[in-house]
Amino acid sequence: MLEILSLIRSDGDPRWCRSVPNWDRGPWLETVLGLRRAKGNPRPRLISSHLPVQLFPKAFFTSKAK
């Protein structure tokens, strides 16, 4: 899924997917380092997570995140 979303974000150009590691393109929300990376990435951001929906921050549900 991360590869598909990365290609959509880069308008189908695979150079970004090939040059930027997965953990930088879609950092894990559950880790401190991943959260810092996600906040530093330009919008629209890709974020990876295995958190159950009940543990997501409440602000997530009122945002425009997809």
TrEMBL record:
Keyword list, A-Z: Transferase
Enzyme class: transferase
Example GO molecular function: sulfotransferase activity
Coiled coil: none
Record-listed E.C. numbers: 2.8.2.-
Sulfotransferase domain span: 1-66
Superkingdom of origin: Eukaryota
One Pfam family from the record: Sulfotransfer_1
UniProt family annotation: Belongs to the sulfotransferase 1 family.
Protein name: Sulfotransferase
Organism lineage string: Eukaryota, Metazoa, Chordata, Craniata, Vertebrata
